[in-house]
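re: ur question from earlier - yeah i can do the single chain one, its not a big deal. heres the input i used so u can compare w yours
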Amino acid sequence: MFPDECRLCEQPLVNVSRIPVCPACLSLPKPLAAEFFCRACRTPFVDSYPLDEHDLCTVCRESMVNFDACYSFGSFDGPLQKLIHLYKYGKIESLARPLSRLLVQALPACETVDMVVAMPMHWRKQWERGFNQAALLAEPLARRLRVPLAGNLRRTRYTKSQAGLDESERKANLKDSFLVRRPAMVVGKRLLLIDDVFTTGATLRAASEALKKAGAARVAALTLARVDRRSFSPSIGPRKVDTVPAAKETEGVPA
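and the output i got, formated as tokens:
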């Protein structure tokens, strides 16, 4: 039995389907729009002040940028945040396909990809949630790009939540937490690493570092959304935003 009301606007669904969100709400998320971006992580800024002469933001200047490029569809707020929370914490897996279409929109046509890699979850965390949200997003994207979906990037240990940790604590928490099995599969390959939300980029950097050490020629990261760092304090985490009723606020904001 599927709901007959949209989980976001609570309006009746004309055509009841496995996706409990109406087409109008699915079309609400808007792409990032800004005049200034960090060259490495693509964080948007209202002016060029946070960028150095190489167009790098503070985080990328002070961190080793392990990915070669990073793209996100929109900001982690408003309708997009609600859809992501409904997908992850409301466990509406059928949202993976419409959300993956946003990833397609965010990927530049000039980005050449040999293989798609989904951000892995530790088996315990995946068992608790019931599915890997990044993997479900990556599957239709890989089919659309007509490239393989690799499954050899693994989490080696169960890490605590990244929410509330500053940049150095996030790095320490993720140290040696990724392993590439059968590294010959990625040697010389141009990889597209998929995740749902870019917060500070610590998780994406750690995963990209493992892929690069395994021999990947290029790693581009692609996420649905990114936290607006202008309203983000690493010591206390992202600002709180209202979520849909199905969201588990105690889970915190993903890294």
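The radius of gyration is 18 Å. not sure if urs matches, ping me
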